[in-house]
From TrEMBL:
A family per Pfam: Peripla_BP_6
Alphabetized UniProt keyword annotations: Amino-acid transport, Signal, Transport
Cited SUPFAM superfamilies: Periplasmic binding protein-like I
Annotated family: Belongs to the leucine-binding protein family.
Protein name: Ethanolamine utilization protein EutN
Organism this protein belongs to: Roseovarius mucosus
GO BP terms, alphabetized: amino acid transport
Domain Leucine-binding protein: 34-363
First and last residue of the signal peptide: 1-31
């Protein structure tokens, strides 16, 4: 059966809807008898490939769920909205999807600032919010007495430990610097990286900021170089990360760059130039170099559903697909456990999941009232871009 996909067309979001040609649109009559799952993500702009990947992962999982009979006797319908990387627009979309469309679970928040804007509303509305991308630690660790936010993705504080460990063990770093996006995601990683360095008794050469629209960061990098930085931790999405690497190229500074996964979200290898291949980037999943039968079967299904996918190089970023695919199947199990579409019941349904043989791993009690993140540091792998494909570093 086909995924049912509903999306309001706007001039800016039209490009992000190209893949809707391979899905069926819900008719009003059918929509009344479906279980609606919302998705808010970047469907246009520099991070549109990430939004596309999340959509594809969810769509593939929903196809499988619907082919097996759906949930609670109904088919599952996905309804998407473009947040345009804007927290205010994301919050407006969340209210619309919850209050007007009646989604029973909301996926989204590609960007940490968007997710953080949605968290208080989703907890107040008592509707589960599933994060398949944004890694900000406070998203799930939000302090709410009743926390409705779950995640199948990386978590900054664990990523930061892994970044520091790689800088030390692989590159022998003793005085690393930071290049961080100037927003709450950068702040989250500043805390995590600082704590990870302090745990090893290490200093930092400095902490520099990059703006989303910066076209040159030579001054920031020069300060780090003059401070003796022997490695750089980079935390930013596609555009600013590309500017960091282009600025390094202009400077002729050959310094190790160990990155969060932001560059995976779009056309980084094209935008960053020849230094793109030098970035060592953390991921939760890759199809390339993955010999698991589940990965092979899922890639085959993706190629059958989306003819433009010819192989692993065409599913970048694979993390968006894998995180969303597993998150959708875990959500389906939660709804089945709940036996209803009531928000508090679904929340308890997540806690009642025993195990699930997923694409990323086999999950065993993935969620508890104290732990709303299904993935841990043991699920991370370092990669680099080679000819536009994200390849694991051996």
């Amino acid at each position: 059966m086909k995924t049912i996909l509903n999306q309001k067309f706007t001039r800016r979001s039209f490009a992000g809807l190209a893949l809707a040609t391979v899905t069926a649109f819900a008719t009003p009559g059918l929509a009344q008898d479906t279980i609606k799952i919302g998705l808010i993500a970047s469907l246009s702009g520099p991070s549109a490939k990430s939004g596309e990947a999340i959509t594809r992962g969810m769509a593939l999982a929903i196809d499988e769920i619907n082919a097996a009979g759906g949930l609670l006797g109904k088919q599952v319908e996905m309804i998407r909205r473009d947040d345009e990387d804007n927290p205010g627009k994301g919050l407006t979309a969340a209210r619309e999807l919850v209050q007007r469309e009646g989604v029973v679970v909301l996926f989204g928040g590609l960007q940490t600032p968007v997710s953080l804007a949605l968290v208080p509303y989703m907890n107040q509305a008592k509707v589960p919010f599933m994060g398949p991308w944004a890694a900000g630690t406070p998203i799930t660790q939000n302090g709410a007495e009743e926390n409705y936010v779950f995640r199948v993705s990386a978590v900054d504080e664990m990523v930061d430990v892994a970044l520091v460990e790689r800088a030390v063990t692989v590159h022998g770093s003793k005085n690393p610097g930071m290049m961080l996006i100037n927003n709450p995601w950068g702040e989250s990683n500043e805390k995590g990286l600082t704590a990870a360095l302090e745990a090893k008794g290490m200093p930092t050469a400095g902490i520099e900021r990059v703006e989303a629209n910066d076209i040159d960061v030579v001054p920031q990098l020069t300060r780090l170089k003059e401070a003796g930085a022997d490695a750089i931790f980079m935390v930013a999405n596609v555009g600013p990360s590309a500017q960091v690497m282009k600025s390094l190229e202009r400077m002729g500074w050959d310094v190790p760059v160990i990155s969060h996964w932001g560059p995976a979200g779009g056309r980084f290898s094209e935008l960053a130039g020849p230094r793109a291949k030098d970035v060592e980037m953390i991921q939760t999943f890759t199809f390339s170099g993955n010999d698991s039968p589940k990965a092979a079967a899922t890639l085959d299904a993706l190629m059958a559903k989306f003819p433009e996918i010819k192989g692993p190089a065409d599913v970048t970023p694979a993390v968006g697909i894998a995180n969303a695919y597993d998150a959708m199947h875990l959500t389906a199990l939660a709804i089945q456990n709940a036996g209803s579409t009531d928000g508090p019941a679904i929340r308890q349904g997540f806690y009642d999941i025993d195990s699930y043989d997923g694409l990323i791993k086999t999950y065993s009690t993935p969620f508890t009232p104290e732990q709303h993140d299904a993935l841990g540091a043991e699920d991370y792998v370092f990669t680099r871009f080679i000819d536009g494909e994200i390849i694991p570093i051996k």
